[in-house]
Amino acid sequence: MNYASVFRVTALGGLVLAVLYLVTGLIALMARESALVLIFIVPSAVITVISGITLLSIDKPERPSRPIDGLAVALLFWLLAPIALSVPFLPVVDQNGPVLLLGIYEAVSNLTTTGHSLVAPSVVLPASLIVWRATLHLLGAIAFITMAMTVFAALNLGGPGIHRTRFFTIPREHFFDAVTRSLRLVVIFTLATTALICFLLLVGGIAPRDALALSTSVITTGLVDPDLAVQPVPGLSEILVAIIVIGLCLGTLGVIFADSLSRFELR
Prior knowledge:
This protein is mostly helical. It contains nine helices and no strands. It has helices spanning 3-30, 34-57, 67-84, 99-111, 127-155, 175-203, 208-220, 238-252, 254-266. Helix 5 runs antiparallel to helix 6 (175-203).
């Protein structure tokens, strides 16, 4: 295994998480949620320092990366990301239970796009935490689709379904270079479709908070705002329901569309 590649790519992923923390912290600041600003800014600084030290202390790998290295990064992501991303949930989960464990559960729930929440129904989540839940939903969906198109496909090129792809037929190439191309396509597809549905919902008169939660939920097939599971969304017309249904279809078929885009680029 190419440990240098694994740890450097993991550290780069850490910097991405730090940026997500920072952006959400700025949103909390603009929303005047002063009590939550440091909850986002401090983890951003800590992750940046740890990732930066890792990148500076490990030289660039001399050997090319392989699919097994991608599998190692995927495992590290699903092990470390829930811990690193759980901090904003600690103040709102059940304080009578193991807070850290419940916060990690909340992060895992969002990253896997199930959306189940341990926050008490009486607690109205601040805007920045809704944004954070949406961010984790999108991050988890993007990570899973990219892993399916790259790591799983490379380890089983002859398999059925999503394992059948042309993306890794290029010889003598660093594995993570191919992952970068695939990741770019998945990010563009996921964010563009989410933004389009959010825009249509806003035009249809849905409140910004609900529009963000709904658009992210339908693309990731998750549940960003737990309140939406127990109460109807005000102003939801038949046309907007149709848009949501189309969004759910796009979210379900996202792997197929992204793989088609990757094949088109390789031609």
